[in-house]
Amino acid sequence: MTAPGRTPGPRPLLNRRLAEFGTTIFAEMSALAARTGSINLGQGFPDTDGPEEVREAAVRALRDGRGNQYPPGPGVPELRTAIAAHQRDRYGLGYDPDTEVLVTAGATEAIAASLLALVEPGDEVVALEPYYDSYAACIAMAGGTRVPVTLRPREGAYVLDLDELRDAVTDRTRVILLNTPHNPTGMVLGREELAAVAELAAERDLLVVTDEVYEHLVFDGEHTPIATLPGMRERTVTIGSAGKTFSFTGWKVGWVTSTAELVTAVRSAKQYLTYVASGPFQYAVAEALRLPDSYFEEFRADMRGKRELLADGLEQAGFKVFRPAGTYFITTDIRPLGESDGFAFCRALPERAGVVAIPNAVFYDHKETGAPYVRFAFCKRVDVLADATKRLYKAFAR
Q: Is the dihedral of CA 351, 355, 356, 357 positive or negative?
């Protein structure tokens, strides 16, 4: 019998697959921002709500009693129909809303359910490094092995080395995990690069899981879903989300589109995670997806202006800036400031400048590769960004 107050075991309480994952850097830095009263340019959430008509749609659903009880497991029909229409009208991708669309609790659950469904112990998952931190945790929970392919800066932007990607694939590879537009680097994979990925996937009979939550935030070039390429619809699981596009990140409404067979597999895992979520918000997102093109154009233009404001301010303060082609994050190199340790820099930044950022090394297996890079989010009000740039300039400009 265990004595009161003692931890059971000699065995650690945390599943060994998750032993390397502690509190996320986002929680740590957001707490640091709150404690010091700093401007939080770390975690990627807007500081204003999205369209009023979308918020009112959620209120209307609540009042009408739509979604207050468990919604259907695959998602409410209205939203699944709207997602299918979005994929068809924007990209020419036809999906059956009844069998080829699955609504999830944000893209995070979509990623988890996809990897838990498709990856078995011993399978390898090739992922672009740096990567969103949940990728590594979800691969670990599935018992898979992550194989990073590192994106490297070249001529002011991050690029994918296709030879390195090809070399990373082995007989044990099951999934290529893509993210485009890419967080944190802001890289957007072009059609030529995607065609090479598609060719590799077909040649080695691989599945592709692609996180496209920033699809409506491409500033340079265009977003091309890999599922549109020949032969890829049948082997691709595409993940989307309402949070980034409509600035309601707390609603946690995401989705998966794929073949009926792949969606069934993902749903088999998803049903034992949240089962269902976000009932009334699903109806609101269905209306949001039907907003006119002018909304998406204005949203993108607003974020482009904020990108320029923060990028210019960071450059003036002395950072080397990699202007993102997409997303709402900017990666910077702190070495021109005489710094090289992103963790130490970010933990000291609130006291030095009253600003919070994220060290990119948390997104790397190869920590030393990401050590001198720091990410800032520009999905904030213009006055907040202007204040942050002034603080950074005062702290670092020479």
A: negative
Would you call 316 exposed, middle or buried from its count of C-beta atoms within 10 A (0-12, 13-18, 19+)? Answer: middle
Say if CB 206 and CB 248 are below 8 A apart. no
The token duo for 163 is 């030879």
Q: What is the CA radius of gyration of the chain?
A: 21
Closest listed residue to residue 212, CA positions, set 236, 243, 180: 180
Picking from 307, 296, 359, 261, the residue whose alpha carbon sits closest to that of residue 51 is 296
Give the residue from 158, 150, 119 showing the smallest Cα distance to 137: 119
Phi then psi for residue 178, to 5 deg, are -100, 160
pLDDT at 309: 98
Q: pTM surpassing 0.85?
A: yes
The reported pLDDT for the residue numbered 44 is: 86
90: left (phi over 0), alpha (psi -120 to 50) or beta: alpha
CB hemisphere CA count around 278 (13 angstroms) = 28
* Residue 209 to residue 174: CA distance in whole angstroms: 10
Token digits of residue 156: 């002011």
Measure Cα distances from 85 to 80, 88, 90, 238, 326 in Å: 9, 5, 8, 15, 23
Tokens of 145: 């092995």
Helix or strand run (H / E) with residue 377: strand 373-377
Q: What share of the chain is helix, strand, coil (3-state, %, to 5)?
A: 45, 15, 40
pLDDT in tens, 95-125: 999 999 999 999 999 999 999 999 999 999 9
Residue 84 in contact with residue 95, Cβ under 8 Å? yes
Q: Quick one: average pLDDT of 286-311?
A: 98
CA distance 224 to 230: 13
Reported as type and span, the H/E element at residue 40 is strand 39-40
**For residues 328 and 215, what is the distance between their CA atoms, to the nearest angstrom?**
11
Distance, CA of 259 to CA of 115 (rounded, Å): 16
* Element spanning 147, H or E: strand 145-150
Q: Which helix (H) or strand (E) holds 346?
A: helix 342-353
What does the DSSP 8-state code read for residue 224? Answer: -
Q: In what order do the strands lie in the sheet with 329-333?
A: 320-322, 329-333, 373-377, 358-359
| Tokens 């739509």 -> residue | 66
Q: Is the peptide bond before 372 cis (omega within 30 degrees of 0)?
A: no
